[in-house]
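Hi support team,

I'm opening this ticket because the web form for multi-chain structure prediction keeps timing out on my end. I have pasted the exact lines I submitted so you can reproduce it. The total is 867 residues across two entries, so I didn't expect it to be a heavy job. Is there a limit I'm missing, or should I split the entries? Thanks in advance, R.K.
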Amino acid sequence: MDMLINSVGLMLIAMIIWWFWMSSPKAKVADSQLIDILVEDGVYSPAIIEVPANQQITLRFIRKDASPCAEKVIFDTLDQNLELALSQPTELSLNIADAGEYDFTCEMQMYRGRLIVKAK
Amino acid sequence: MTVKHFSIGGMSCAGCVASVEKALKNVDGVTASSVNFAEHTAEVEGSFSPASLIKAVVDAGYEAALLQSEEDTAEKEAAEFEHYRNLLKKSFVAALVGVPLFVLGMSGLLPDLNNTQGQVIWFLIGLATAFVLWFSGGHFYTGAWKAFKNHNANMDTLIALGTGTAWIFSMVITLYPDLVPALARHAYFEAAAIIVALINFGSALEMRARGKTSEAIKRLIGLQPKTARVVRDGKEMDVAINEVGLDETVRVRPGEKIPVDGVIIDGHSSVDESMLTGEPLPVEKSMGDDVVGGTINKSGTFLFQAKRIGSETALAQIIALVRKAQNSKPSIGKLADKISAVFVPTVLIVAVVTFLLWFNFTPYLVAEEMRVSYALVTMMTVLIIACPCALGLATPISIMVGVGKAAEFGVLIRNGEALQTAGKLDAVVLDKTGTITKGQPSVTQINAYGDWQQSEVLLYAASIEKGSEHPLAEAIVNAATEKEIALYDSQHFSAVAGHGVTATIDGHKILLGNAALMQKNNVDFKAAEKEAQQLAEQAQTPMFLAIDGQLAGIVSVADPIKDDSAKAIQTLHKLGIKVVMLTGDNSHTAKAVASQLNIDEYFAEVLPEDKEQKVALLQSQGYVVGMVGDGINDAPALARADVGFAIGTGTDVAIESADVTLMRGSLNGVADAIAISKATVKNIKQNLFGAFVYNSLGIPVAAGILFPVFGILLNPMIAGAAMAMSSVTVVSNANRLRWFRSTEIRR
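Hello R.K., no limit was hit. The queue was backed up. Here is the completed structure from your submission:
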């Protein structure tokens, strides 16, 4: 019994490491220039978005979560930030030249998302 | 797909409409557009950046501005209040079940699980708690599940796992008590309910406290009037502020707020601009003067033409700049961000390790039968006590209050990094003209030599300076204008940087400038040298005038020192800052000003292009240097400095080279900016220290590190209370910055 519980515990640790740090959900490939992102229940949906470089895109955030945590979206590496109105779309237009990964988070880093910019 | 409305200026015919429509349709992302000639507006549909659209219209030869709907703060506040009430309601319902259970349990009035009757009662309690967890804590479980699906873990994950484990374990031993030894048969339903109550209550308090952190921005938004009185077809009518178009004529009556930015076309008045610039005295305005939206018309009535509307007004730009700065993070917070990013999964691992350690070592520390209970309770306590929010909030919440507070004093800080560096400054370089002095010099003395008369000296000096925009040149031209002297035109004009000017006037070769210019052109100026030195020692700027190689006179100009410069420099000294002055004046004038104001070091006869080098020189000596200048002529020096302050810019906020823009002319703004930066950085450090210490002490204590020596184990409900209060403490500490007072008031 002891061996079983210890083994389950160690497997759980391995799973936490794998699930949260070593794997990521599949990115949503943007099929238009306007991408809707729902801000609700602690997550951005979609949280990972793939967009082409050197193309005008508009991220339209729709905030459904009234808690203050959801109020801001910060694109730290792009030096951009937004304040999201509740239940109203708030847009951010971007045209990113450099391919790469750009994280966006709420103020407290609990909501987390990523823009994957791919060279055409 | 969105629809946006723009005001279009400069259209005079139907042909213009076609040109504007063509320009709009060529913008990437525009799917449809229509231009209304009568209203001078355009409706554009598609997915595009408003800035790129405005640029396209401007490139086509017209003007454009985005017509924005008014920011509805009342609606936002109502939604926030509703959420606050909802949190309190959830907290109350959870407490309504959790607290009686806790009291009954402590009083020994609840049955044990060793008989069927006890099991039935506990099962019913379990169902009641399940309802509470669904009603009051449902959002934690939904959030945790959605985050998990996204390979993310957040605060919801910790609360959901902590309370969920407590409930599941309690229900399992209620249904199958034989699974654990008799001593370990203890249900934790009350703990789950009370933790949910405490965390909801903490969130409500945090929300209340956070509302106060954005008071400064709310005050700025509140400056915007809701309506404007426009003149259309000769009739005055009140319209909503977002309906005012470019170039429209607007009437402002005494006591009214000016709705948008523009230029006065009729009438005059005095305008109170203190709410934007911090400048206490009203400013006189008449035809041709600019007026700024959000400021208050004091006495007269006037008409003005709207030149900047919507997001283009100075007030809108100030709000945007303050908001952007409030959301930016200084490097001091980067470590906390890195830790926050991996915090929750790390806590999950620590919780599993805690479980395993207690599962394996409880037999040696307590008793074999208690291993599952101890392992579960400590694991649950670790999950509940960990607070990633306090860490994540520590920096941004202080920046938000600090940047907002600075804006109240007319100090616009570009970003968090500038604020952090401003707090470290130990040397401030001041440009003399316009920074220490008023920047409005006047001629104080004219000496003539040889056969020349004073009026002739002024005539030639003013004639050569006629085309120059230098403040000293303007002073000389103004002196000639006052005496109604008709000026000559000059030929072969040449400005010798840092020396003066040369030209040919009325057939004479004229030189006007400092001693170096005279020496360079072999002019003997010994006769005037002593008098020039005396004038310089009185903090005046004497300029030699030579006509055809002969000394003809001295024109002395003085730029009065601003009333509050001495006190501001005294305040900077009190903040432990070395004050350095740069000036193009000769060393006698510079010395006189420096000793009058107790300036620590000065550099005289500095050419404009050398200012940057002087900043670099101080940096090479180990100083963290702030440079204060006008933001245009001093741009390279401002950019070179660790923090560039653009001073006295009024409401013209778009100064790219400056890290800090001071909207009023007083040097006190520099002291205010540095003082509030120091206070904010200190506040961030307190928050970060508190959050780090809380988590790094709280988690090991929750894991039971004190048990082997002191026999202390933390109750999960106390962990819940501590977690709920940790974020509230951080926000409340940041709110203390709201009581920061300007250095002027403190004096």
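A quick check on our side: Chain A touches chain B through 52 residues (CB under 8 Å). Let us know if the file doesn't open in your viewer.
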